[in-house]
């Protein structure tokens, strides 16, 4: 991979465990559905949130309206948001690798993410310390989710590196396949241990 000039990371599932919008146990119990089932039933609203159609408050109110839920102490926009924002945890060893890689390569972050979580991680984790460019599905100039090709094109342009000189890392095979279609080299993130072995020759 001697022609690699930029390395692009996914966020959830690579830099941290996946955040779960419907993490609220009260919501799951009330609906008798797991998070995946909730997302599937409210697919248009869910996808709309990831492409910037809703802010935090409007999304949760739309979800509550969709499922005909009345606001109470456990189910309200604030508590549902809090459960979501607390549902992920950073992988410190992966973030350490990213800092090492930044000494040699341009680094990008490309993630399907809601405005709510995007704003949280940008503020909490000082992403500019790790990445030269960040692109999220909910950004106004993107408004599309991987594996749509637009997010890949936007991050390549922001980094100023042609797709064929980019290495893309994601835990989703369909997102990896999309990156390959525009010429990026790829690593499928299966586990932290395997990834650290895969990336070792670039460090």
Write up this protein.
This protein is an alpha/beta fold. It is 44% helix and 11% strand. The chain is built from 10 helices and 5 strands, in the order E-H-H-H-H-H-H-E-H-E-H-E-H-E-H. Strands 3-2-1-4-5 form a 5-stranded parallel β-sheet, with helices on one face. Helix 7 links the parallel strand 2 and strand 3. Helix 4 crosses helix 5. It is elongated. The model has no long low-confidence stretch (mean pLDDT 96).
Characterize the quaternary organization of these chains: single chain
Which range best describes the helical content: under 10%, 10-25%, 25-40%, 40-55%, 55-70% or over 70%?
Answer: 40-55%
What is the count of helical runs?
10
- N-to-C terminal Cα separation, in Å? 12 Å
Shape label: elongated
Low-confidence stretches: none
Radius of gyration, in Å, reads 18 Å
Strand adjacency order, main sheet:
3-2-1-4-5
Overall pLDDT confidence:
96
**Strand runs, count:** 5
Strand content: 5-15%
Largest sheet: 5 strands, parallel
Structural class: alpha/beta
Instruction: List SSEs in N-to-C order.
Output: EHHHHHHEHEHEHEH
Outline:
44% of the residues lie in helices and 11% in strands.
List the helices and strands and how they pair.
Elements (H helix, E strand, L loop, with lengths): L5 E4 L15 H7 L3 H7 L1 H8 L5 H11 L10 H9 L6 H10 L4 E6 L3 H11 L7 E4 L13 H10 L6 E5 L2 H9 L3 E4 L3 H8 L4
Helix pairs in contact: 4-5
Sum up the structure in keywords.
5 strands; 10 helices; alpha/beta; 11% strand; 203 residues
């Amino acid at each position: 991979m001697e022609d690699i000039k930029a390395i692009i990371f996914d966020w959830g599932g690579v830099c941290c465990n996946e955040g779960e919008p419907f993490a609220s146990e009260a919501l799951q119990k009330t609906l008798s559905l797991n998070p995946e089932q909730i997302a599937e039933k409210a697919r248009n609203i869910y996808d709309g949130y990831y492409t910037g159609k809703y802010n935090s408050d409007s999304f949760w109110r739309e979800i509550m309206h969709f499922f005909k839920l009345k606001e109470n102490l456990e189910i309200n926009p604030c508590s549902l948001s809090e459960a979501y924002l607390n549902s992920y945890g950073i992988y410190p060893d992966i973030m350490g690798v990213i800092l090492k890689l930044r000494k040699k390569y341009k680094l990008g972050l490309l993630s399907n993410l809601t405005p709510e979580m995007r704003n949280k991680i940008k503020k909490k984790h000082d992403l500019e310390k790790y990445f030269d460019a960040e692109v999220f599905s909910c950004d106004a100039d993107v408004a599309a989710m991987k594996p749509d090709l637009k997010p890949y094109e936007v991050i390549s342009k922001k980094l100023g590196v042609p797709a064929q000189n980019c290495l893309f890392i994601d835990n989703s095979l369909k997102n990896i396949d999309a990156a390959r279609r525009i010429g990026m080299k790829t690593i499928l993130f299966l586990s932290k241990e395997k990834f650290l072995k895969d990336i070792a020759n670039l460090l």
